[in-house]
Amino acid sequence: MLISLRNLAKSKANTNCSLCCSSAAILDANFLLTTTAAAAATRTSSSFSFSPNASPPPAPFSTSARLTPARDVVLSFKEWFNTRNDALFDRIFLILKSSTDDDVLALSHLSLRLSESFVLEVLRYGSNDHDVLSCLKFFDWAGRQPGFHHTRATFNAIFKILSKAKLMSLMLDVLSTYSKQRYAHTVRFHDTLVMGYAVAGKPDIALQLFGKMRFQGLDLDSFAYHVLLNALVEESCLDAVQVIAKQISLRGFENEITHSIMLKWLCKQKLLDQAEAYLRQLVSDGKPVTGHAVSVLVDALCKHKKFQQAGELVEEFRDLGVALMESAYGVWIRDLVQAGRLDGALEFFQNKKSLEGYVPDAFRYNTLICRLLKEDRLEEVCDLLMEMKEDKISPDKVTMNAALCFFCKAGMVDVALELYNSRSEFQLTPNSMVYNYLINVFCGEGSIDDAYRVMKHSVEQGYFTGRKTFSILADSLCREGKLEKMKELVTFALERNFMPSNSTYDKFITTLCRTKRVEDAYLIHGELNRINKVSTKSRYISLINGFNGLSKGDIAARLLIEMQEKGHLPTRKLFKDVICCLCDMENPDEQFFNLLEMQLSCREPSCDVYNFFIYGAGYAKRPDLARQVYEMMQRSGIQPNVRSDVIMLQSYLKGERISDALNFFNDLHERRKVLGRRLYSTLIVGLCKAQKAEIAVNFLMEMKEKGVVPSDDCYEFLIQLLCWNKEFDMAVNLINDLEKVGRHITSFTGNILLLHSLKTAELYKSWVQLREEQNEMSGCSMLGLLIGAFSGRIQVSQDIGNLEEVIEKCFPLDVFTHNLLIRRLSQSNMEHACALFDKMCQKGYEPNRWTYDAIVQGFLKHGRTSEAKRWVEVMYRKGFYPTRRTNLLL
Questions:
Q1: Rounded to an integer, what distance in angstroms lies between the CA atom of residue 749 and that of residue 227?
Q2: Phi-psi category of 692—alpha, beta or left, where left has phi over 0 and alpha has psi -120 to 50?
Q3: Lower CB count within 10 Å: N or C terminus of the chain?
Q4: Sequence-separated (6 or more) residues with CB below 8 Å from residue 64
Q5: Rounded to an integer, what distance in angstroms lies between the CA atom of residue 110 and that of residue 668?
Q6: Cα-Cα-Cα-Cα dihedral of 799, 805, 811, 812, to 10°?
Q7: In DSSP terms, which residues pair with 290 in a beta bridge?
Q8: Residue 494: predicted pLDDT
Q9: What is the pLDDT of residues 126-180, one digit of tens each?
């Protein structure tokens, strides 16, 4: 009877085999290796046969008998291992690790054909191995090769590697050096700096550089914008996220990457329902959505234990035809495995593979295999390894290490050791690979107790974990809240003169803070200060945020001052959070001014220091405190700058103290000879948000009388508010005023006018009345024609090309504009509406749900039901659904 590898795995799983090879395991292995050619021909996908020339089974306890069949197993797996496709990368990193900086020229002998994609692959490979130094050496070497210049993508890749390794000081040195050199190649200098500081966790510096760029008339491109936006989300700079997202949208850079980042932003705020609604709206609107965006939400739902909802979401968006769902499948499988729902992960994995032809990559296989190994489900491990081999999926280092662990757990330690001894043939890590790998696997899969036990066993065998593995284990212990074990691990390392890195201490303290053991973290922080261990900025931020969370703003305030004494500059947000916490405590006024007093003794009084407190008090909705700080600044002889005035004004507006805001603004008139656009814009926009349209209009008029040109925001917020209030006469006057001040109609304003024109003819009446009263509308006559046409008061006789040109002369078109235009044209001529749809697609605009819905409604209103139904079918294929109103007409 044939004993296959699968059967051996099954027998070992049933007997809960150990890592050591027992006599029973040797006996089973000998039977296993007695395969024949006939047996091989009848092998199923769940079994595995070896060389048909294998010797007959000898006596089970003979050493020579075990070596021959074990060699057959080794040769079979070596053949598979040799199919791996990253051997060139191993050679590159072998040279980098074994060479000095001067000897890296040995890379030239490999005759590498450098390109952006190749360099990115090499850096990604090195990043997976956490080999930061070698990545840096390769990056420097590549940049010096003739004919190759680093791109923004390669710069961003090395920035991410340094950031992930927490080598912030090194990264800042790189950025500082780069800022002093202007390379002759095509990489955009300012873009690279902004990306670098953003990825380095310095969003404040990145935003400052971005502001300087804009002041100089420069701008980021789409790639840099998205790097900055993602960094702001990662650093939880929630206020700045919306600002940058709006800039991306205004510049037409919005794409699926934008949507994925904004989904991450919502998820980081735990707004999962809003994130789901946002994702559905993207699909409904026809925005570009792929499986990557779905995976962001799926991952967040799983982290919040909402597995059923996450699973339903995967299937729903697969049914909607969302592209590249493999990404979502992979994340869903990974999260199920990490949560211990292994059976569900395997069932999903096999269903997708058999029904949809889903071919996972080696990483997804490894995820399942490693978890199965941890649970000793060796039969299923064997099945997956055989699937990989038969499907010709090239194994990677993780796969090979998993195979080694499988052979150990299956009792075939001799095979595992033979493969381990041959590691140089496959360029595996030349150190305690099995121990380190097991620690990494157990940590990655959440079995921290097992990982800790393996680490102690490895020490008993004369090995001590490397810095990389130590860091992984420490991170995992912190993540799982096993803080007592973490203390033991740190003590264990110090006994061996192994000093944990700052990042390890930071994670330890961060975990203590996250688990509400902030006082313990504070004690450790004090002990580190005692031994002169430099405290990092992130450590202070964790402690400050921890005490803020416990409503102990007084301790957070002391740490804020200490942080500055240690040379770390707190962000404006950190100041704001501490001040808001103080304002929620007992005796908030006393606490607030105690912090101000400590701050003024810590740093030289300046406008910026006072501005921090005004800004924080405004966010705490304590404009009275903000005003006291403002007056204190004046008494100290420091003249408030424009920013001081702006945030003081915003404090009143945020606190809904409209009358105080107006009085303060009047005081500024007396103190300042000229009030700039920024102050006027702040007041007008704030009044609009408070629904004070009439007052806002008055200040707009005053602004113009003072010779200050209103910003686009002023006009946009005012016109929108007036239209919603049906105060069309005033809105038309503002449009007329736009021409006089030399400003163009923005897409936002133009769309608001067309939208309300479709709803009512009152806007056009107001337009005509103003034209009759004053003959000053010549420059806006085309806009008037559009408003009349959309109101139904003017017959549209132009062809669609001319009509589009008319709109383009008034304001830039976008998808919303095309939807309005299609809806208007469909009222009279469906051929024109369909022609515009085609032209819209040719120009690169992506039709959304409302585009299709307008077409369908148009056909239905003209009684062309069959054509409407054909368009509905197209809608369904695109993943859109008709609106309720359209369904009623159908």
A1: 29
A2: beta
A3: N
A4: 58
A5: 70
A6: 100
A7: 323
A8: 65
A9: 777 667 788 888 887 887 788 788 887 888 788 777 777 667 677 667 666 665 5
Contacts of range 427-431, beta carbons closer than 8 Å, 24 or more positions apart: 427/87, 427/90, 427/91, 427/94, 428/397, 428/400, 428/401, 429/397, 431/463, 431/466
Model confidence at 47: pLDDT above 60: no
CA atoms within 13 Å, Cβ hemisphere of 180? 5
Rounded Cα distance, 9 and 11, in Å: 5
What is 147-187 written as a DSSP string? T----HHHHHHHHHHHHHTT-HHHHHHHHHHHHT---SSSS
Are the beta carbons of 93 and 106 closer than 8 angstroms? no
- CB-count exposure of residue 812 (10 Å: 0-12, 13-18, 19+): middle
CB-side exposure of 115: number of CA atoms within 13 Å? 3
Scored b (16 or more CB within 10 A) or e, 569-605 reads: ebbebbbbbbbbbbbeeeebeebbbebbebbbeeeee
Residue 328's Cβ-side half-sphere holds a number of Cα atoms within 13 Å equal to 28
Partners of residue 323 on adjacent β-strands: 290
Percent of the chain with pLDDT over 70: 83
CA distance 441 to 181: 43
For 80-132, how does the pLDDT look when each residue is reduced to its tens digit (9 = 90+)?
Answer: 887 776 667 777 877 777 766 555 667 777 778 888 888 888 888 877 766 77
Q: How confident is the model at residue 546 (pLDDT cuts 50, 70, 90)?
A: very high
Look at residue 488 and tell me whether its pLDDT is greater than 60.
yes
- Please give the backbone phi and psi of residue 391, each rounded to the nearest 5 degrees, phi first: -85, 5
Count the neighbouring beta carbons within 10 Å of the beta carbon of residue 241: 25
Of 345, 346, 264, nearest in space to 298 by CA: 264
Name the DSSP class of 673: S
Mean predicted confidence (pLDDT) in 474-479: 84
Q: How far separated are the first and last CA of the chain, in Å rounded?
A: 67
Q: Alpha-carbon distance 817 to 752, whole Å?
A: 10
Length of the chain: 890
Q: What is the pLDDT of residues 69-78, one digit of tens each?
A: 677 878 888 8
The answer to whether 378 and 348 are in contact (CB under 8 A) is: no
pLDDT band at 681; cut points 50, 70, 90: very high
C-alpha torsion sign, points 237, 243, 249, 253:
negative
pLDDT digits (tens, 9 = 90+) for 396-444: 878 888 888 887 677 675 676 677 667 677 766 534 657 776 677 677 7
**Cα four-point dihedral sign 567, 568, 571, 577:** negative
Q: Which two tokens stand for residue 353?
A: 């593979």
Mean pLDDT, rounded, for 835-849: 89
CA angle 345, 347, 351 (to 5 degrees): 120
Question: Residue 678: which residues within 8 A CB-CB, separation 6 or more?
Answer: 642, 646
Helices (H), 531-676: 537-549, 553-565, 572-583, 588-602, 607-619, 623-635, 642-654, 658-671
- What is the pTM for the complete model shown? 0.45
Torsion angle in degrees (nearest 10) through CA of 245, 854, 746, 289 = 20
pLDDT at 710 (0 to 100): 87
Residue with tokens 């939807």: 819
2: which residues sit within 8 A by CB, 6+ positions away? 35, 39, 47, 49
Q: Out of 119-128, 292-301, 583-592, pick the least confident.
A: 119-128
Domains of the chain, residue spans: 5-71, 90-148, 448-496, 817-890
**Neighbour-count burial of 809, counting CB atoms closer than 10 A to its CB (0-12 exposed, 13-18 middle, 19+ buried):** exposed
User: What is the b/e burial string over 711-723, where b = at least 16 CB atoms within 10 angstroms of the residue's CB?
Assistant: bebbbbbbbbbbb
